[in-house]
Amino acid sequence: MEGDIVQMGAYIGAGLACMGMGGSAIGVGNVAGNFLSGALRNPSAAAGQTATLFIGIAFAEALGIFSFLVALLLMFAV
Amino acid sequence: MATEAHSDEGGLVFHPMDQFIVKPLFGDGPVGMFTITNVTLWMALSVIAIIALMVMGTSGRSTIPGRVQSIGELAYGFIYKMVEDVAGKDAVGFFPYIMTLFMFIVFANFLGLLPAAFTTTSHIAVTAVLALLVFVTVTVVGFVKHGMGFLGLFWVSSAPLPLRPVLALIEVISYFVRPVSHSIRLMGNMMAGHAVMKVFAAFAPMILLSTGLGLLVTPLSVIAIAAIYGLEILVAFIQAYVFTILTCVYLKDALHPAH
Fold first, then answer.
1. How far is B183 from chain A (nearest CA, A)?
2. What parts of the sequence cross the membrane (chain B) (predicted)?
3. Taking CB atoms and an 8 Å limit, are B185 and A68 in contact across chains?
4. With 90 as the cut, is the pLDDT of residue A35 above it?
5. Angstroms from A58 CA to nearest CA on chain B
6. What ipTM was estimated for this complex?
7. What is the C-alpha separation between B57 and B61, in angstroms, rounded?
8. Which member of A64, B95, B96, B253 has the greatest number of CB atoms within 10 A?
9. Is residue B259 predicted with pLDDT exceeding 80?
């Protein structure tokens, strides 16, 4: 019985942790959208900034990956 | 974890995480320090593929490059330009290291996309070693080049004086989180992508056999697998690119620590 409750808590926690991915999705969309709006204003400067774009996306995405990892740990390691 | 045998379960069941199990290549003894496992095999394969590409690309050099030579030159030029642009002209001494990192990760990612292959970069043990090597290299380079001046990286001299200790604390924490996020980003992306593909791949036959809706849903699921596979090809390249470009960014911080 007690183990079942712990199991249930782990699964609920894993589901809650997945909300973090939504936040990182908003962040990545923000970065890409702002890049696009800037790039359309000044297309000649856009090509040189793709590296910056990917760095920004990587930083925003890392936090979503962290929450994914928490979910995985709750599912398989706890 | 998912290492137990699933023999007692009947019917159609699927285990999307089973593809990440490390098992010995010969026999089924325990996995020790020097056991040859499927990880060893696929790492060796990616190294052999890189050597083959580079040796074949540079052996018959011609002014009009062939296919293999074009790809080799493309990869070389791409990484060289990245190091020069992001890390600065004085960082080109680290170009061989960064090129090695990129080629290994990109080949491991792409070979992992083959059916029945093993993705070595989906294991934290592999990516953590890569990220820790970058972290140690960057820190040592910073201290060798600038001595104690490297600590200026943490002391934001453009900020108002009362704020600086707080910022220094944040900078120190973010510096030490670097290897964690650096390794988990690659591993998480690879593992999540492959798990999703397996989930969809198992979903298609399961719904076909279980409900009357199967004939409608299964084609959609198969199309979704193809779409996700296409996305994974993109992700495999982008994650290798991101890993390399972050290495360049960290290297730039070490070479020019002043804010």
1. 10
2. 39-57, 94-118, 124-144, 195-217, 223-251
3. no
4. yes
5. 7
6. 0.74
7. 7
8. A64
9. no
Closest CA to B248 of B77, B102, B71: B102
For residue A54, give the nearest of B50, B185, B23, B231 by alpha carbon.
B185
Written as one string, the DSSP assignment of B43-108 is HHHHHHHHHHHHHHHHHT--SS--HHHHHHHHHHHHHHHHIIIII-GGGGGGHHHHHHHHHHHHHH
Q: Is the pLDDT of residue B94 over 70?
A: yes
Backbone phi, psi, residue B24, to 5°: -65, 145
CA dihedral A65→A70→A71→A77, nearest 10 degrees, is: 130
Q: Given A55, A61, A69, which is nearest B249 (Cβ)?
A: A55
Distance from CA of B185 to the nearest CA of A (A): 6
Please give the C-alpha separations between residue A35 and each of A56, B3, B179, in angstroms, as whole numbers. Answer: 10, 44, 27
Backbone CA torsion sign across A56, A58, A59, A61: positive
Residue B1 identity (one-letter amino acid) = M
Residues in chain A with CB shorter than 8 Å from the CB of B185 are 58, 61-62, 65
Query: Do the Cβ atoms of A17 and A74 come closer than 8 Å?
Result: yes
* Cα separation, B97 vs B58, whole angstroms: 19
Contact between B245 and A55 using a beta-carbon 8 Å cutoff: yes
Average pLDDT estimate for A15-22 = 91
The answer to whether B244 faces chain A, any CB pair under 8 Å, is: no
CA A36/CA B124 separation, integer angstroms: 33
Q: How far apart are CA B160 and CA A13, in angstroms?
A: 41
Confirm if A69 and B128 have CB atoms less than 8 A apart: no
CA angle, corner B51, sides to B45 and B56, nearest 5?
Answer: 125
pLDDT at B13: 66
> Helices (H), strands (E): how many in chain A?
4, 0
pTM, rounded to two decimals: 0.84
Spatial distance between the Cα atoms of B211 and B206, rounded to a whole number of angstroms = 9
B18 touches chain A (CB under 8 A): no
Is residue B231 within 8 angstroms of chain A, CB to CB? no
- A58, A66, A77 ranked by CB distance to B246: nearest: A58
